Fold this protein.
Amino acid sequence: DLSYSFCTLLATKKKKKKRDQKKKKKTEKTMPLPLQLLRAGMRQPMMIELKNGETYNGHLTGSDDRMNLHLEGVTCTSSDGERFWKMDECVIRGSTIKNIRLPEVVSSLCEEQASKVQKKPKNRGAKRRLRDEARKDKRPK
């Protein structure tokens, strides 16, 4: 009698653990990749700090896989903070970027885009077809 209750207790704990793991997977927020953030941040204002200390403030109009950025309406600040100059547009090489500051709106846009991608069905009915084929194979002839 005691061994039976202990076994059932272990089984219920395992079931609860699996259920909790499934809930964590559903509610867990994944960190978006930097390139996804940049693509979501098109036409948004941002501040970019370079490795040499210069900062660029402007609106992102383009980016590529190497994180090269194209900005418009740029205000540049020197590394010592004493000189400022404006440019209509500029291109920043990705390997020189130290830090990028994006508005909060971009992270929410990125999450929305990720949720849209997850909602799309990958292959409708594939699991059902495989399950039905497996059942047919198991039937006695």
